[in-house]
């Protein structure tokens, strides 16, 4: 019988009666198995899904079961209550077959199973018993009173009234039962009634349905939590009955006061959707969704007026308590409007707008609504978003006045009572936009509209708009931009400055929403950034309506967007197009600008001309076009050095297109000078552009260009080194403390945040993406610098104390023993004036000393940051060209080793070491593909000699490792040269032997690992040679 165990979550989810939503009834597989009776007593679905071969012979149940028969029955009914659906279906098939297949069992046997097993099983809370037992009962009832009509033919003692009595007797609680056990019994009775409904046997005989309807109405008054489930069973019944029976059913429900309840609304909607022309009781309403009924509908859907007498004098049934689960009536309402929208979208939109405003907005979100009603309102909002897949008119209406006010208010702070519900509603918006990108403009208009706020994210302290904009596609970018750009900015609720700042942020988000990986994969979003940047550039440079004080901020946003765009290797064209689209006025008195700017535009268009581009020149032409585009942008930003840049770019252009009289190879030297000037600027845009341009020109690099690139690596990391690297007029540009506005405006962008010039060495290391180990290795040097700074500060303070003591004639408290006693005399006015002058002089000296130290520190950081940028370019060249066996990569080896040996910044040394490792890997890859650098053997040997000399300059482990890597790379090339002289490797062995002898004698200091690496390399080559010889012998045999 009943169990005290609570229903499991799985049972609750699949419970067709206890569930309040249609989506939570039993699966289609079970539905079909209970409504399609088969000739052998089993379900059609079960037969087709569980038995593909000829079914085995069925053994019928017996009247007096023995031990084996009882064991078989017990096992089948145990399987029928299990949570596994396939086991339940298999057991149901066996039980139905054992009762009704063939001629079927005798009536006493069937009665025993109905009384003692099946109906009692409905009252069990064990696992999924109700689902399994109702499956069998539905099929049996269908064969007793349906098409087979076995109750008249064979089982005359089991007529409808008798079976109904068995149900009531088996499931009515009696005695002093525990609460859960009583609940199980009532739910069992409800499941039994549902079995009659689902079997489809009630609607041929009006009397049978009246009896079942009476039971349902009676059950709905027993317990408040049964009311909703009873209503849903009636909805299922109405969906099966004819028009006349539906009219009588609605009349009965209206008489019982069931109409003005959520369940009644659902029943009315179901009936009217099936039979639009049916006769409906005049009271309390003919159609609950009609305009005339909307005044009374909110009270019904909010379950108000509990235990009240209705207007027509009938007593309303007890309403269920509030629950966090949304009522099934909202699924029916949504389905009704979706169906109406297919017939006439305009009429459906008008009806839904009236319904939403009167019922939901004023009913669930008014000032007098309770928190529970507002919570339900948020769930209704989510339900409409999730279910309105092809009904944009529904989504358009959802952003109503009271709902939006409540949504923004509750989402703004975490301590608000409905904060989590509001956040969930906002996430539902994001999900809807993700699954239906075409809705995005509609959603944005709703959030920005008269009931929303243009600065919605600020008002709600969320990133809803940012996340929504990530769903913009090439098809929706135009309406999205239209939604963002209000025709009348004053309607945004913000002043003009705030509006344009918010618009700039939205456009920046649109232009940088995709990562490089997403940009490559999601082709439907590639046009988004291009169009957004064009609008942003137009606002920043061309739109006269934008206030002057905001224009500078927008230009910063535009520069940040360009920097993000240039990080994508194939997006240079978008940047060029955006800059070409800028239309701004030039001072007519500025003759230089009137000549330089048109020429720059002419060069840019020429470089982008596809007719003049070949496969070999495509990369360099695009890169140079990018430089001209950046130059034009700098001109608009009023950069003072832009004229010099245009002159240098003009020379590069002439060399590239062959108009220059000088050797074409000189382009690389000019280009390196331009790029070095660009990377010296603390700007993410300059850094990204310089990398892309340099990567395109790496095949054209010359030895002189590599020398120009590596020379800055030898500069002192001090004020003296800064002076050597930069001219005095560039000092302001190289001020590391100034940072860059460009980077500070790119929020939540890790890729660009690392490009900002930092004021400490650790961050300078992270600028290049150093590994965690490199960051950790820098900790020691940071601590040493802090200790040194502390000592310097203490020495300065002691000097100040001493100077003050001499002027004041005082001493510190810890010097009482050495101090002379004060005579206690007062100072005269003239002495006081002299005293003030001495104090001022002391503090002037102190300020000068502090300023000098800060300048030295800033100079050091500036040089280190510049070297990081140079190493970035050099790393690109090494990684790309070493794999192509370009011999020029070895021109960078000695400068890199010198940097590792001399720098005081460990991240810088680590990055240089990484470059050497990449060189070794690239050469190895090139050799595996049959390519080797075109270098003579003597040049190899000369390089190896220099490397051995370099190894003796620093005995540190890291430096030795780097030198050893280079030596072994060169040795590998010498050992593999086909046309090399026989004594080349002998020279290598002699050189190592000579160096080792010097080390043995103490003439040089070198780490022992330098020689162990060499021995390991020799061992590996010896093993490879032995394997090759063995393989050759094997082939000969």
From TrEMBL:
<dbReference type="GO" id="GO:0005730">
    <property type="term" value="C:nucleolus"/>
</dbReference>
<feature type="compositionally biased region" description="Acidic residues">
    <location>
        <begin position="728"/>
        <end position="747"/>
    </location>
</feature>
<dbReference type="InterPro" id="IPR007015">
    <property type="entry name" value="DNA_pol_V/MYBBP1A"/>
</dbReference>
<feature type="region of interest" description="Disordered">
    <location>
        <begin position="725"/>
        <end position="747"/>
    </location>
</feature>
<feature type="region of interest" description="Disordered">
    <location>
        <begin position="762"/>
        <end position="797"/>
    </location>
</feature>
<feature type="compositionally biased region" description="Acidic residues">
    <location>
        <begin position="769"/>
        <end position="790"/>
    </location>
</feature>
<comment type="similarity">
    <text>Belongs to the MYBBP1A family.</text>
</comment>
<feature type="region of interest" description="Disordered">
    <location>
        <begin position="1"/>
        <end position="72"/>
    </location>
</feature>
<feature type="region of interest" description="Disordered">
    <location>
        <begin position="809"/>
        <end position="831"/>
    </location>
</feature>
<dbReference type="InterPro" id="IPR016024">
    <property type="entry name" value="ARM-type_fold"/>
</dbReference>
<feature type="compositionally biased region" description="Low complexity">
    <location>
        <begin position="34"/>
        <end position="59"/>
    </location>
</feature>
<feature type="compositionally biased region" description="Acidic residues">
    <location>
        <begin position="816"/>
        <end position="829"/>
    </location>
</feature>
<dbReference type="Pfam" id="PF04931">
    <property type="entry name" value="DNA_pol_phi"/>
</dbReference>
<keyword id="KW-0539">Nucleus</keyword>
<dbReference type="GO" id="GO:0006355">
    <property type="term" value="P:regulation of DNA-templated transcription"/>
</dbReference>
<protein>
    <submittedName>
        <fullName>DNA polymerase phi-domain-containing protein</fullName>
    </submittedName>
</protein>
<dbReference type="GO" id="GO:0000182">
    <property type="term" value="F:rDNA binding"/>
</dbReference>
């Amino acid at each position: 019988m009943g169990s005290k165990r609570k229903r499991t979550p799985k049972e609750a989810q699949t419970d067709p009666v206890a569930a309040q939503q249609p989506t939570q009834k039993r699966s289609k597989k079970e539905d079909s198995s209970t409504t399609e009776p088969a000739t052998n007593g089993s379900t059609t679905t079960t037969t087709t899904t569980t038995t593909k071969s000829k079914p085995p012979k069925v053994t019928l149940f017996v009247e007096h079961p023995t031990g084996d028969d009882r064991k078989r029955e017990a096992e089948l009914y145990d399987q029928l209550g299990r949570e596994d659906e396939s086991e339940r279906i298999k057991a149901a098939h066996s039980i139905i077959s054992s009762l009704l297949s063939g001629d079927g069992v005798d009536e006493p046997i069937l009665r025993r199973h109905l009384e003692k097993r099946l109906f009692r099983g409905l009252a069990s809370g064990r696992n999924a018993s109700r689902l399994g037992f109702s499956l069998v009962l539905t099929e049996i009832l269908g064969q007793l009173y349906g098409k087979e009509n076995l109750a008249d033919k064979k089982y005359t003692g089991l007529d409808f009234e008798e079976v109904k009595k068995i149900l009531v007797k088996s499931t009515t609680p009696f005695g002093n039962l525990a609460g859960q056990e009583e609940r199980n019994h009532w739910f069992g009775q409800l499941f039994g009634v549902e079995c009659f409904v689902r079997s489809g046997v009630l609607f041929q005989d009006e009397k049978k349905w009246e009896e079942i309807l009476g039971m349902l109405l009676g059950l709905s008054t027993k317990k408040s939590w049964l009311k909703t489930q009873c209503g849903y069973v009636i909805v299922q019944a109405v969906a099966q009955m004819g028009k006349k029976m539906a009219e009588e059913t609605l009349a009965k429900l209206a008489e019982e006061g069931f109409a003005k309840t959520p369940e009644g609304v659902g029943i009315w909607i179901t009936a009217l959707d099936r039979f639009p022309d049916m006769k409906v009781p005049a009271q309390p309403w003919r159609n609950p969704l009609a305009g005339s009924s909307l005044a009374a509908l909110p009270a019904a859907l909010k379950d108000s007026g509990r235990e009240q007498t209705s207007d027509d004098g009938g007593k309303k049934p007890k309403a269920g308590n509030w629950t966090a689960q949304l009522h099934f009536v909202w699924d029916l309402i949504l389905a009704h409007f979706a169906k109406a929208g297919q017939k006439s979208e305009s009429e459906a939109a008008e009806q839904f707008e009236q319904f939403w405003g009167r019922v939901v907005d004023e009913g669930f979100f008014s000032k007098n609504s309770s928190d529970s009603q507002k919570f339900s309102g948020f769930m209704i909002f989510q339900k409409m978003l999730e279910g309105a897949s092809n009904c944009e008119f529904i989504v358009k209406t959802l952003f109503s006045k009271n709902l939006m006010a409540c949504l923004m208010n509750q989402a703004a702070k975490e301590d608000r009572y409905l904060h989590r519900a509001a956040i969930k509603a906002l996430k539902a918006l994001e999900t809807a936009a993700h699954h239906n990108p075409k809705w995005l403009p509609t959603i944005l208009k709703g959030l920005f509209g008269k009931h929303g706020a243009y600065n919605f994210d600020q008002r709600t302290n969320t990133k809803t708009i940012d996340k929504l904009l990530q769903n913009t596609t090439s098809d929706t970018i135009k309406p999205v931009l239209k939604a963002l750009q209000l025709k009348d900015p004053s309607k945004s609720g913000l002043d003009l400055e705030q509006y344009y700042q918010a618009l700039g942020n939205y456009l920046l988000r649109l232009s940088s929403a995709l990562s490089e990986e997403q940009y490559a994969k999601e082709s439907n979003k590639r046009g988004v950034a291009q169009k957004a940047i064009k609008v942003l550039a137009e606002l920043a440079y061309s739109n006269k309506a934008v206030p002057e004080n905001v224009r500078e901020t927008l230009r910063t946003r535009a520069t940040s967007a360009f920097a993000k765009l240039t990080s994508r290797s194939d997006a240079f064209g978008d940047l060029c197009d955006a800059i070409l689209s800028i239309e701004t006025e030039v001072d007519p008195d500025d003759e230089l600008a009137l000549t330089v700017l048109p020429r720059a535009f002419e060069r840019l268009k020429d470089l982008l001309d596809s007719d003049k581009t070949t496969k070999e020149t495509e990369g360099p032409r695009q890169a140079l076009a990018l430089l001209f585009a950046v130059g034009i942008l700098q001109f608009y930003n009023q950069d003072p050095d832009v004229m010099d840049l245009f002159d240098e770019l003009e020379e590069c252009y002439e060399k590239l297109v062959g108009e220059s009289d000088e050797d074409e190879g000189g382009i690389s030297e000019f280009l390196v000078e331009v790029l070095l000037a660009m990377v010296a600027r603390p700007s993410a845009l300059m850094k990204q552009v310089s990398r892309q341009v340099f990567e395109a020109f790496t095949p054209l690099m010359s030895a002189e260009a590599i020398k120009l690139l590596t020379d800055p690596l030898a500069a002192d990391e001090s004020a003296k080194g800064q002076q050597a690297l930069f001219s005095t007029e560039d000092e302001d540009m190289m001020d590391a403390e100034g940072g860059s506005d460009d980077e500070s405006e790119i929020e939540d962008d890790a890729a660009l945040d690392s490009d900002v010039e930092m004021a400490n060495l650790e961050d300078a290391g992270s600028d290049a993406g150093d590994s965690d180990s490199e960051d950790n290795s820098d900790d020691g040097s940071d601590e040493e610098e802090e200790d040194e700074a502390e000592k310097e500060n203490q020495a300065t303070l002691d000097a100040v104390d001493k100077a003050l003591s001499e002027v004041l004639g005082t001493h510190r408290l810890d010097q009482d023993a050495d101090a002379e006693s004060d005579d206690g005399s007062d100072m005269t006015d003239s002495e006081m004036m002299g005293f003030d002058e001495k104090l001022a002089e002391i503090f002037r000296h102190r300020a000068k000393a502090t300023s000098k130290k800060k300048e030295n520190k800033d100079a050091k950081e500036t040089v280190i940051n510049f070297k990081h940028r140079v190493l970035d370019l050099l790393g690109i060249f090494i990684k790309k060209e070493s794999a192509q066996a370009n011999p020029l990569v070895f021109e960078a080896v000695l400068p890199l080793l010198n940097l590792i040996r001399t720098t005081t910044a460990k991240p810088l040394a680590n990055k240089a070491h990484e470059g050497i490792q990449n060189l070794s890997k690239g050469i190895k890859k090139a050799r595996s593909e049959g390519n080797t650098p075109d270098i003579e053997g003597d040049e190899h040997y000369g390089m190896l000699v220099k490397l051995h000399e370099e190894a003796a300059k620093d005995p540190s482990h890291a430096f030795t490792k780097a030198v050893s890597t280079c030596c072994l790379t060169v040795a590998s090339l010498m050992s593999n040269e086909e046309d090399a002289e026989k004594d080349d490797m002998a020279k290598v062995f002699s050189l190592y032997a000579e160096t080792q002898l010097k080390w043995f004698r103490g003439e040089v200091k070198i780490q022992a690992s330098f020689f162990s690496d060499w021995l390991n390399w020799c061992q590996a080559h010896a093993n490879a040679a032995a394997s090759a010889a063995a393989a050759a012998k094997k082939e000969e045999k």
